[in-house]
């Protein structure tokens, strides 16, 4: 599959764990230091989303992607994406809320944060720990890549 999805989000938002769950890789996730290419996914370092100095790198890398996945950690009390951030990408964006199984998770707050940055698009609540929502997300992403 030559088309890919690009996964973006804050440091420790659960991007690498999400990708590992999507690919059925049970090894523990580690800190992503640079762009990492999987079969049909691109894992980006959290610094790229948190620091405006790296936005240009995200935009350039997005040219290799058919779809952008914006990740929001359900345990965070702030949005790391600026308002309307998804509009900077020519591709379609979808949202993913991670860590919905965590005791401190606030799924509604996470969705509100994503909506500020991504608008009215599909948002998937997930847990890489319990696999909640992973199969549905995988199926959706693979269908999008076939288009």
UniProtKB/TrEMBL annotation:
Keywords: Nucleotide-binding
Keyword Nucleotide-binding in record: yes
UniProt-listed NCBIfam families: EutP
Full protein name: EutP/PduV family microcompartment system protein
Keyword Zinc: no
Family: Belongs to the EutP/PduV family.
A UniProt-annotated Pfam family: PduV-EutP
Species of the source: Brevibacillus invocatus
GO molecular function: ATP binding
GO biological process: biogenic amine metabolic process
